[in-house]
Amino acid sequence: MRDLILGGVLLWLMIKALRHPWIGIMGWTWVSIMNPHTYSWVLNSLPVAAAMAGSTLVGIFATKDKIHYFVSRETGVLMLFMLWMCITLPFSFFFDRSFDLWVRVMKIDFMILVALAVLYTRQHIFALTWVLVGSLGFYGVKGGLFTFATGGSYRVWGPEGSYIEGNNEVALALVMTIPLIRFLQLNASNKWMRRGLGLAMLLCAASALGSQSRGALLAIAAMTLVLWWRGKNKAQMGLLLLVLGAALVIFMPDSWTERMSTIKTYEQDTSAGGRINAWWMAFNLASHNFFGGGFMVSAGTLFALYAPDPLDVHAAHSIYFMVLGEHGFVGLFIFLLLWFFVWRSAGRLYREGRKKPETQWFSDLGAMCQVSLVGYLVGGAFLSLSYYDLPYNIMILVVLACRLMDGKVKEPLPSAPQRPRLA
């Protein structure tokens, strides 16, 4: 029964994508982020993502919907990053393994560009946000309930076979999702919807803590600080965040506290030492190879050449050193430039959207996208999620909202609903 229902929903999305490609983008995002087909016995082995992408691309040529081809500074830098990865690919130390990951990354980035062409209205922005929140919130709510039910004694893991399969990766994805849930809560008119979204945020935070990821804890701390700084009632919000944070931490078992305390004594932690060794390896590799080493450079032969400790072979576990080792200093510069531009555009949404009540949702979106990016940029310093879809979907939200706010889309801007007053 589950296979029939899920298969029917996916087939319906593919058919609708032939007439309305933006629906295909929603289906692609759902499949790519949540991997729902992995819960099916039959669909698990089928190329569901490729079929959804194919339906969307066919729909672009068959649809009567408007298609907006444009280049912003963010999309320009993303295309430059894609071009640079194509240039560095032939210089890979392990071409066969690099090529497989290169294909996967190119597919993701290409569909990001497709999404920017077919999405352009306020409805599209909110729909994409709901898809992202629903896809990852599913794991956050489930993991949060599991954490409370087990007293935090077991780790929360992500969906098998995905980018966020590991406990650290799923924790960061959930941390980045919390601000998006907050954006929807700020713009929800139904009080029960707002309460449900508030509960979802709490469970996602509990799930992230239940993963026992130290990087996620640092990301949550950084995001909480930004949320407090952006809030209007700093004293009230600070007290609420402090009480909720303390309650969650006190609930966790001693094993969790002992693991988190190793942040202060990272010199004695073998895992942290292995990461630092991998960071030096990436730096030395990039210093000697202008084009980097290509994808998948965590190999003993390269550690023997470039690492301080050639026997301690680890993945970089850092979005920065991962890009540095794989694509050199030029690749790292382009990668950082992309997120700098996204951050600046989100900040402009936050500032300019506050000027009028009807554009307040722009401000909400910009602020929460910045908070989510803080989680990514802080937590990503300790995790290998350089090419994960979610940050690039946040870029989509920011770029589309800027185009709407600037009036670059000829489609009339729908009036925003009255924003509810929240305590």
Automatic annotation (TrEMBL):
Residues 199-336 form the O-antigen ligase-related domain. GO terms for cellular component: membrane. Residues 1-185 form the DUF5935 domain. GO terms for molecular function: ligase activity. It is found in: Membrane. Its main location: membrane. It holds the Pfam family DUF5935. InterPro entries: CHP03097O-antigen_lig-rel, DUF5935, O-antigen_ligase-rel_domated, WaaL-like. It is a multi-pass membrane protein. Keywords: Ligase, Membrane, Transmembrane, Transmembrane helix. Coiled coil: none annotated. The chain crosses the membrane at residues 43-63, 75-95, 101-120, 127-150, 170-188, 200-229, 235-252, 290-307, 319-342, 362-384. NCBIfam families: PEP_O_lig_1. This is Putative O-glycosylation ligase (Exosortase A-associated).
